[in-house]
Design goal:
This protein is α/β, with parallel strands linked by helices and 321 residues long. The protein has one domain: Rossmann fold. The chain has twelve helices and ten strands. Strands 7-6-5-8 form a four-stranded parallel β-sheet. Helix 2 crosses helix 3, helix 4 packs across helix 5 and helix 10 crosses helix 11. It is globular. It catalyses: O-phospho-L-homoserine + H2O = L-threonine + phosphate.
Length: 321
């Protein structure tokens, strides 16, 4: 598997380990895979067995291996096992799916907020931390993560990367525009490799600074800068895994509902998902899972007053706040 920029002006396709550390492509585009591996009905049932018998980390390793061919599969399995361990998550299922009663129809809840900071972003950040540390150790290099956040990205990233060898974090936040809880989570960390910077402006000002740094190829290379925002493909890939797990746990395999059914003889059950989203990175992972063949039906975007992108799609006007 090789990765190219969405702007397609960057040179030859890159392996996963390179784009993991780079984050944003030199031309300002996002790295995306050359193709999306397809999962057949039989593949999905095999993954169901993996999830049921070996757990979430084993499922993650199987999905990751479809996109990563420059890290040995046994190392991918070890990375996933460390990222998705019971001590870090309050439920050994990592992403349990439970029924919600009283809706009048089959409604389930995928619990994505059982990690260290009670944010769904722990699901991706935990894996990113393990991947970064593994690859930097393998290369004998160091990396400084420069990120922007107005909410839970910062605390999730910092908790996942704190104290790791070869890693430092500089996180930009808009001054006075975060909840007291999120600000306390971040600014109470005293680890030597964590630096928090409050910027006089809005989130887009912080993000513009991060993008400007990433666009300066010489500066970025000199200071070994990387990213953990949704511009990093590895973060989206980690999110794809929990959509696969959610579909598997919300459905029954062939034979579970009908003793005579055999794998491949029954059309997989389709599931619609409703995703609370701000910048659409989370629901983008659901879209990728669907492109891979996971039988997701409607992808419903739920938004609140943080509706910058929703407003843009409805009106054609982009209004930073």
């Amino acid at each position: 598997m090789r990765y190219t920029s969405t702007r397609r002006t960057t040179g030859s396709p890159r392996p996963f380990s390179d784009i993991l550390l780079e984050g944003l492509a030199p031309d300002g585009g996002l790295y995306v895979p050359g193709h999306y591996p397809r999962l057949s009905a039989d593949d999905l049932e095999e993954l169901r067995l993996v999830l049921d018998q070996q757990g979430y980390a084993a499922l993650a390793a199987r999905i990751l291996a479809l996109y990563i061919d420059d890290i040995p599969e046994e190392d991918i399995a070890a990375i996933a096992s460390r990222a998705y361990s019971a001590p870090a998550f309050s439920d050994p299922a990592i992403v349990p799916v439970t029924a919600l009663e009283g809706a009048g129809f089959d409604l389930r809840l995928a619990h994505l907020s059982l990690g260290p900071t009670a944010a769904f972003k722990d699901m991706a950040m935990r894996l990113l931390g393990e991947l970064f540390e593994y690859e930097l150790r393998r290369r004998g290099q160091w990396l400084t993560i420069v990120g922007a956040t107005s909410g839970d990205t910062g605390s999730s990233a910092e908790y996942a990367l704190r104290g790791r060898d070869g890693l430092s974090v500089v996180m930009l936040t808009p001054a006075g525009r975060m909840t007291a809880f999120q600000r306390a989570q971040m600014f109470s960390l005293l680890d030597d490799n964590i630096v928090n910077v409050a910027v006089d402006g809005v989130f887009d000002d912080c993000q513009d600074l991060v993008k400007a740094v990433n666009m300066d190829a010489a500066f970025k290379a000199r200071w070994h800068l990387g990213a953990v925002n949704s511009i990093n493909w590895a973060r989206l890939l980690a999110q794809v895994v929990y959509y696969v797990a959610t579909w598997l746990r919300a459905t029954e395999g062939p034979g579970e509902g009908s003793p005579s059914a055999r794998p491949g003889t029954v059309a997989p059950e389709r599931v619609s998902v409703v995703v609370p989203t701000g910048n659409f990175g989370n629901v983008c992972a659901a879209h990728i899972a669907r492109r891979m063949g996971v039988p997701l039906d409607a992808l419903v975007v739920a938004t609140n007053e943080n509706d910058v992108l929703d407003e843009f799609f409805r009106t054609g006007v982009y209004r930073p706040r």
